[in-house]
Amino acid sequence: MEVKKKIRSSNTPNFFSKEMIITKKSLNENQLKFTYQKQLISDLDNKHKEWSKSINSKF
After folding, report:
1. Whole-model pTM?
2. Average pLDDT, stretch 35-45?
3. CA 21/CA 35 separation, integer angstroms
4. For 12, phi and psi rounded to 5 degrees?
5. Rounded to an integer, what distance in angstroms lies between the CA atom of residue 43 and that of residue 48?
6. What is the mean pLDDT of the chain?
7. DSSP code per residue over the chain
């Protein structure tokens, strides 16, 4: 009981929202989606850079 009191009495902000519950599975799935999207954006950025170089070399 004393440990709970100490934790509750600390002035640290809550990490999780009290109104919203997200499962660990959901967090992991969202992390995988985010990582995949970052990779796609990075690939697209590289393709645009290559395309830009090829266009500039023609002119």
Report:
1. 0.48
2. 91
3. 22
4. -80, 140
5. 9
6. 78
7. -HHHHHHHHS-PPPSS-SS----HHHHHHHHHHHHHHHHHHHHHHHHHHHHHHHHHHH-
